[in-house]
Design a protein that fits this description.
The protein is mostly helical. It has 15 helices and no strands.
Length: 280
């Protein structure tokens, strides 16, 4: 490789890096703006010009959100519902994926095609049916009413099935020869060989559940039963909306998933890649 080619590659690498940095800054600016605005007094927020740094730094809006709202209860609701959705979704998808991959039972292919076809049905089209069912069961304004309609994630079943299909048949045949039960085969062979997938799917499912807004907004009308994503819309008072308070609540709502993403970034990226590969 001659010097001219190296110079061209270096120039191309510099341009790509520069574009990446510019795109990253554009993406991150709204996050920066939200955090900075939450640290400004309200009179600075409503000024007609842009200030990238507050003249007066204040934490009064965080004090207000933490002491004058039900944010503690909203956090509890979000933690309970998000964890419940994550555990139930991952477990049910794991069992379903294993059955579709390894067991022979009537209408297995029909069930598999039904799961694949579910991608053609937008979740929003089921909202009315879900609400009517939950209302008839008396589950409005309950944790169960928030959790149950959000347990449908066909992509997780498909990911599990594909990974179980990829496990060498020799392991199953050896276990069958030792008279191992299906439960033992699943828990001793298939699950341990796919712990990474389970961890990645659990993390991304929790983040999806925590960030959900539409269904929790419809299923809950009582303030004390709201999740954090819905509850932050209530951070106002009789004098109207305070933008700094609203953004403070939004920052507090997004903080747990931001921390979770930073800690488990590799697993989240892996799960998104798996999901994108299935949908593609």
């Amino acid at each position: 490789m001659n010097a001219e080619t190296l110079r061209r590659l270096n120039l191309a690498g510099f341009i790509i890096t520069l574009l990446t940095v510019i795109v990253a800054l554009i993406w991150a600016f709204p996050l920066y703006w939200g955090v900075i605005t939450s640290l400004k007094p309200e009179d600075e927020v409503v000024r007609p010009y842009i200030e990238l740094w507050p003249d007066t730094l204040t934490f009064s809006h965080y004090y207000f959100a933490l002491t004058q709202t039900d944010i503690g209860r909203w956090y509890l609701n979000s933690i309970v519902t998000a964890l419940s959705i994550t555990v139930l979704t991952v477990l049910s998808s794991l069992f379903c994926g294993y059955a579709l991959s390894q067991l022979n039972f009537p209408f297995r292919n029909a069930l598999w095609w039904l799961i694949l076809a579910s991608f053609m049905v937008p979740t929003q089209t089921l909202i009315v049916n879900h609400f009517e069912l939950i209302a008839r069961l008396g589950l409005v304004n309950t944790w169960a009413g928030i959790v149950l309609p959000q347990l449908i994630h066909p992509v997780i079943i498909i990911v599990y099935k594909q990974f179980f299909d990829g496990v060498p048949k020799d392991f199953r045949e050896a276990a069958v020869m030792d008279n191992a039960s299906e439960w033992r085969i699943l828990t001793r062979i298939y699950i341990p060989m796919n712990w990474g997938v389970t961890a990645a799917l659990s993390i991304v499912t929790f983040i999806w559940s925590w960030n959900a807004f539409l269904w929790p907004f419809l299923a809950v009308t009582r303030t004390e039963m709201m999740t954090i994503t819905v509850g932050i819309t209530q951070v106002n008072d009789a004098f109207g909306i305070y933008y700094a308070r609203e953004l403070t609540a939004a920052v507090l709502a997004g903080l747990p998933v931001a921390v979770a993403y930073l800690i488990f970034q590799r697993r989240v990226t892996e799960a998104i890649t798996l999901s994108a590969g299935i949908k593609g």
